[in-house]
From TrEMBL:
SUPFAM superfamilies: MoaD/ThiS
This protein's name: MoaD/ThiS family protein
Pfam families xrefs: ThiS
Parts of the chain that traverse the membrane: none
Top-rank taxon, per record: Bacteria
Species per Swiss-Prot/TrEMBL record: Microbacterium gawkjiense
Length: 77
């Protein structure tokens, strides 16, 4: 099991701050969470994804992953 944590607008779109997931790859995870949380379509494409603290793009294996953070862009000044 991998814990996925959603922050700010991603948490609002997902309707939860965290959930346990079992997908084997990052692409499978993206597909599954978009199917289950349709409002994420508006946020996820702009989010940074960290797998065990390391920014990860593309399709990565989640076989040994323990924590995934979904971070939308933050505004600030």
């Amino acid at each position: 099991m991998t814990l996925v944590r959603y922050f700010a607008a991603a948490a609002e779109a997902a309707g939860t701050e965290s959930e346990e997931r079992t997908e084997a790859t990052l692409d499978e995870l993206r597909t599954a969470v978009l199917d289950e949380h349709p409002k994420l379509w508006f946020v996820l494409p702009d989010c940074a994804v960290l797998v065990d603290g390391v920014r990860t793009d593309g399709d990565a294996s989640l076989a040994d992953a323990r924590l995934i953070d979904v971070l939308p862009p933050f505004a600030g000044g």
